[in-house]
Amino acid sequence: MNVPAIAKSTFELLKNQPEFSSITQTIIKSLKKIKNNFEKARFIHNVVDEYNKEVFSHPLLMEFVPCKSGCSACCHTQVSVTTEEAELLIHHIDNGVDINYELLSLQSEAQNNAENYYKLSYQERACVFLSEKGACKVYKDRPSVCRTNAVIGEASQCATNTSGPGPQRLVKTSKADMAIVGAYCVTAESGALPYMLAKLLKERNQLENINALQSLVNKLKNKKSESNNRLNNSKNVFKDPQI
Ligand code: SF4
To answer: For 91-128, how does the pLDDT look when each residue is reduced to its tens digit (9 = 90+)?
Structure first.
């Protein structure tokens, strides 16, 4: 289980406080009842958004949060996803969201290893869903961890164009973090976004190949039985004395 680092440290800090640990437990129970993976992903996204509303509705805090559309430093860090979130992202690709497959392949080579990931250049670390204008192409269905990324202070403190995340002060999203841990407890697999995406796409291609082969075999079988039928009919023609 690859729980995102920030959510994990929040969990370690608060797991003995019933007010917080009950959030994780409730999420686990609720997610187990949902069968559809897209619904599961969107359920946890809604929960995270609701908890974030409590945090980000504070006007004083928002005066010190410089995050805005087009500022994409956090989209150059290693983002984690659950299986359900990766499937939801693939659904967007299926529906026309364009991604850079070369970049995806390069980033997925780092697998879940943060050290290898941060050996890539800043440009090479750009999330494959990041548009040229620095906006998220899947904003409504962006992963849970992307929803909790916000910094306090100067935007420049957030720069990730050197060797990974800088010493920025993140806004504490404790309740959302506890909910995220719940989602990671019940998912089949989790890991870095590029790695999970590439893995699922590869598995699906294999499946498509198997399906294509199966349909080819069926077509060949049908052709063979059609030609057998024709052969039998022609034999009957020669046998029939009336013709
Ligand atoms: S999914 Fe969207 S918000 Fe998350 S890292 Fe990628 S571009 Fe950024």
So the answer is: 999 999 999 898 999 999 999 999 999 999 989 999 99
Q: Which residues line ligand 1 (CB under 6 A)?
A: 75, 79, 127, 129-130, 136, 138, 142-143, 146
Alpha helix stretches (DSSP H) within the chain:
5-14, 18-33, 37-56, 59-63, 83-94, 101-108, 114-117, 144-147, 174-186, 193-239
Q: Are 182 and 26 in contact (CB under 8 A)?
A: yes
Annotated domain spans of the chain: 5-203
pTM for the predicted model, two decimal places: 0.80
Ligand 1 pocket: which of 48, 130, 141 to mutate (most atoms within 8 A of CB) = 130
Give the Å distance between the CA of 243 and the centre of ligand 1: 75
For residue 168, the 8-state DSSP code is P
